[in-house]
Amino acid sequence: MAFEFTAENKRKFDEILTRYPVQRAAMLPALWLAQQQHGWISHEVMEYVGSLLGLSPAKVYETVTFYTMFHLKPIGRHHFQVCRTLPCQLMGAEGITSHLEKKLGVKLGETSGDGRYTLSEVECLGSCGTAPMLQLNDDYHENLTPEKLDALIASLK
Amino acid sequence: MEKILTKNFGLKDSHLLSVYESTGGYGTLKKLFAMQAKDVIEEVKKSGLRGRGGAGFPTGMKWSFVPQDNPKPKYLCVNADESEPGTFKDRYILELDPHRLIEGIVICCYAIRSHAAYIYIRGEFVFPYHRLEAAVKEAYAKGYLGKNILGSGYDLEVVVHRGAGAYICGEETALMESLEGKRGMPRLKPPFPAVVGLFGCPTVINNVETISALPYILENGPDAYRKYGTEKSPGTKLFCVSGHVQRPGNYEVPLGYPLKKLIYEDCGGMRDGKALKAVIPGGSSVPILTAAEAEEVTLDYEGLAAKGSMLGSGGVIVMDETVDMVKSLTNLAHFYSHESCGQCSPCREGTGWSHKILKRILAGEGRPGDIEQLEKNADHMMGKTICVLADALAMPYIGK
User: Which of B3, B121, B268, B369 could form a disulfide with B7 if both were Cys (CB 3.0 to 4.6 A apart)?
Assistant: First the structure.
């Protein structure tokens, strides 16, 4: 199915283009807009963004796949991203992941069958003084304990 | 000690323009526009301010490398791609005092005669991104950014640009590649960014913390800044303490501060009465210190170099006696192999293979020759690549 920006996002994209002397520099902002609209970056999205920037889909593909935050397939409505890097590991990050695996019924790296949860581990999120921590969709949750995790899960719609 | 970078952190709504102005914020701009650009560079040179992103290069000198006879536009890139494990300082500046950064940006751009700045912020920092965007909007509305700032005739556009998840984009030339809409792969130097940087134009790239020190320096003068710190490492710096201390967090202290004091006094000492085993003093890419070294070292560029390490980004990772060093190294090997951009074979292969060997050792399946192989890997990785990502992982193999 072909993808295109909504009228509002097209307006936003046109404004973004004016910020850079080189069109290709609008690549990451355009991909962010597309992911917000579509939830993930499909091949159709890449073709569309390429057409807007005058680039082949392959140029968009090589950029998309370089970065960890663009999703190449649909992800769960609630995306748990547990920081796994050293400062968090020192403070018990592994326990956070295993607790979530149990409570969410999802294995690390997987999405639940109903599309509700995705569980990932990610590298340093720059929140080392409040470890262990995770990012749930856009938001940081810090100084985690099993109790805090349970309350967080219970609060989700 | 007077706080330079964090003095507003405790104020209610410190991120708002009105609060920043009420503490004298943007007050330096009048003085700035009455000065010659080259004199601003001189003031920063005299202050001795050094880059706070990791390399510690003298800021004023970096600015002076921008060729003023080059007809191309000049750019400032602000590195807000904070991703060095153990580092979480820029995030707090962005969240709690974004206007100090913006005022610093105006100062830097005026000095290097630039009319456009790009703030590259890591994609994961969604909340700081919204704070920063809102602050930039406020600054435009009040005439601190945009055309003819405060009637000075000086124009400056500031764009906030989000990354999308890649540690390597904190490397200055990778950041520029990424900003140009490409994969974030470091460029060969020379040419250096001051001559050929963003969009092929002369570019200064500075860290958030570096830029945020500028309003103080311009307002109070280089000598006031030099009241803090040491002769070669003047001023204050944010140290981000994580790991096994009672009170982890951000601490602004003068450079030259004893690490022992930071851990045992400011941070309340070790957690659960455990003994100190080791400290990574400047983010995961700098050599680790033993407890004995950590208790002697001072936090300045020279003090850490004397102990074989580096000041780096100021990310102090504290480990107690229970920490398994093999497991810690394996964790970092995973990090560096995951974050290698892949363009240089010694890094792509070296980080990947050493992670596999370390995992094997950690699982109790180490083989004779594994240690020697890691040492060999270090030789194959160090100094053989475009950037220093591979070196960061190789140093621990040879006991550094």
Answer: B3
Q: How many domains does chain B have?
A: 3
Q: Chain A residues with CB inside 8 Å of B180's CB?
A: 22, 24-25
User: Is the CB of B244 inside 8 Å of chain A's CB atoms?
Assistant: yes
Range of the domain at B278: 236-320
Compute the radius of gyration of chain A from its Cα atoms: 18
Is the pLDDT confidence value at B400 over 70? no
Mean pLDDT of B238-258: 98
The residue behind tokens 């080059």 is B70
CB-based contact B165 A68, cutoff 8 Å: yes
The CATH H-level superfamily of A78-154 is Glutaredoxin (3.40.30.10)
pLDDT band at B395; cut points 50, 70, 90 = confident
Cβ atoms B170, B79 nearer than 8 A:
yes
Q: How many CB atoms lie within 10 A of CB A115?
A: 12
Q: Which two tokens stand for residue A151?
A: 């309350």
Whether B250 has its CB under 8 Å from any CB of chain A: the answer is: yes
CATH 1.10.10.1590 domain range(s) in chain A: 7-64
Q: Could you give the CA distance from residue B98 to residue B131 in angstroms, rounded to a whole number?
A: 7
- Residue A145 CA: distances (Å) to CA of A108, B97, B318: 18, 29, 20
Pairwise CB contact (< 8 Å): A90 & B317: yes
Instruction: Supply the mean pLDDT for chain B.
Output: 97
Radius of gyration (C-alpha) of chain B in whole angstroms: 21
Reported as a single tens digit per residue, the pLDDT across A47-103 is 999 999 999 999 999 999 999 999 999 999 999 999 999 999 999 999 999 999 999
